[in-house]
Write a structure and sequence with these properties.
The chain is an alpha+beta fold. The chain has three helices and five strands.
Length: 128
């Protein structure tokens, strides 16, 4: 894979999540390489009420929710892994182990990436 084939952004959204989502979108708009956005996005709502809707259609999967908080009894899907373009993520899952439940108040989220898709997109600099 070519160096710098993709970009990774870790983020924690707080108050004004809509403004922060718009700022992330603007910061990545001119980047002509695949981007992975992950972190505690503090958004449990989906569909029309989600503050993450500003990221559509560029990032996804927005509506895939995996309960990861609190780690002892996960009820809320606050943590997300999104990609631009969304096809870079082939699967998402929560990492459930006895250690992961005590290591943090959030359970880790894992993504499998479609690396072949990254290689193909790298050959098309204007993929967006």
């Amino acid at each position: 894979m070519p160096p710098r084939a993709y970009r990774t952004i870790g983020s924690e959204l707080r108050r004004s999540r809509i403004k922060q989502a718009n700022a992330l979108l603007e910061a990545t708009r001119s980047v002509l390489r695949p981007t992975i956005l992950l972190g505690d996005l503090n958004e449990w709502r989906v569909h029309s009420r989600s503050s993450l809707l500003a990221l559509l259609p560029h990032f996804g999967p927005i509506h895939t929710v995996l309960s990861s908080f609190p780690s002892q009894f996960p009820l809320l899907a606050l943590d997300r892994i999104l990609a631009k373009p969304p096809s870079l993520i082939s699967s998402l899952e929560v990492h459930h182990t006895s250690l992961s439940r005590i290591a943090s108040d959030h359970l880790p989220i894992m993504a499998r990436l479609n690396l072949q898709g990254i290689r193909q997109l790298h050959l098309q600099p204007d993929y967006l």
